[in-house]
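Deliverable D5.2: sample structural annotation.
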Amino acid sequence: MQNVIFYTKENCLLCDDARSLLDLLKHDYLFQLEERDIYSKDEWLEKYQLMIPVVKINDTTLDCEQISYDALEKALKEAN
C-alpha cells in the first residue's frame, strides 16, 4: 500500500479541492493518506507555507500549481 502525505492547513480552498481529488482516487488506487497540518511543525510551515496544498507520493512532490486529477493519478501509477 502506498503512503501519500498531504500537507494542508485549515480554511484553505485549494486544500479542500486537493483533498476531494484524493478522495476520488481512493476508489481506484490503494493508498494510505497521512494529512499533516503545516502549522503543527515549524519546519513544515517554513517549507510549505507558500506551496500548499502539497502532496508527496514516494519521490514525487506536487504543489498547489501542479495538483490535478491527472497529475495525482500519474504519480500513484508510477509509485506502484
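Annotation notes: Helices lie at 13-25, 42-48, 69-79. Residues 36 and 50 are 15 Å apart (CA to CA).
The annotation will be released with the project's public dataset once the embargo ends.
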